[in-house]
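Protocol step 4 of 6: structure prediction from sequence.
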Amino acid sequence: MTTRSLASLFTLSLLAAGLPLAAQTPLFVDGLGFGGSKVFSEGRSPLGNPARFDQATPGWYFTYVGGDQRAQNNQAYVLDATAADPQALLNLQNAPWAQRTRSYGAAGVKDSAILAFTHEDLNGMLAFPDVAPADYQSPRNATTAIGRRDAVDRLSFGGGGSTSGTGLGMNLRIEQWHHGFETAAIDPGTGQVPWVNVDATLLGLAATNQKTLTVALDLGYVMDLAQGVRLGLTADQLNSKHLWDVYLQPQLRGGLQVDLGSSAKISVETDVNAVERMPFPLKQKSSSASLTLTASQAVSLVVGVQELTLGAASVTRAGVTLELKTPSFLLSLGFNFGQETPLRGAALMFN
């Protein structure tokens, strides 16, 4: 396959937006959510591929990411459901989730090793519409939405890199999770809040009353198949664990990357299995396509499409990252083209 045909295939993928998005926060603007890759990450995020830690320039990295990720038209459907309108409830059933993210942290990278401290606030909302015909326009409609507040302080350390075309890596995560929730209902009962301004109320939760400490191990692998063609694999959360009602299990992800000359490369990847991840007790699975363009040694652009399938609902998003760098400095700016409050992020490095 020629470079031109590969580029054309990627362009068609972007226009079709038919590839599946990871809900996982793209820390350090490195990876899914901002047009990039997880399997072929740049080595500065502890949530990327551990076998790629040798790709990052040695130095200190700082990150901030914030914004929303939602099922398509979720915010409008939540508002329309207030009156228990039949079509609004059916629409909400097909787009029941929303997530508000804020994360920040710092990482030190040196000699193919990483040490990172990160904090994430994950506010999720999951709706359970009552679509029974007998309950339409009824004061007894049982539609509810659960707002979840999950926050994590994460200490990560790992190492990895490639020699002779083959790379391995591992990353150990020690995480302190905090959890809280609230339930809103169209016909509220004891302990439930009214379905009024639900979006702001549930996605704005700040209080938590439960916490737990967890440990997780991630592995990564890369291999050169030919000149300019490489295979990558990741295995996250090798130790299964329940975090309240979310059952964390190992997830495998594989991808292929092809160099398009000296100034571009394309990556395609997908999750092999569907698993639950915070903050939702629903299985999710994603795939992505990413194109990296290197304009010069100082400027590069990453664009990509991603889709998340969470439960029975799916959503497609495009992302873009602009990077300005020198041997001792990097500024990375990422944007996710979503609805309402798009996901935005920035990373800064100096050494």
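Step 5 (inspection) to follow. The CA atoms of residues 46 and 156 lie 6 Å apart.
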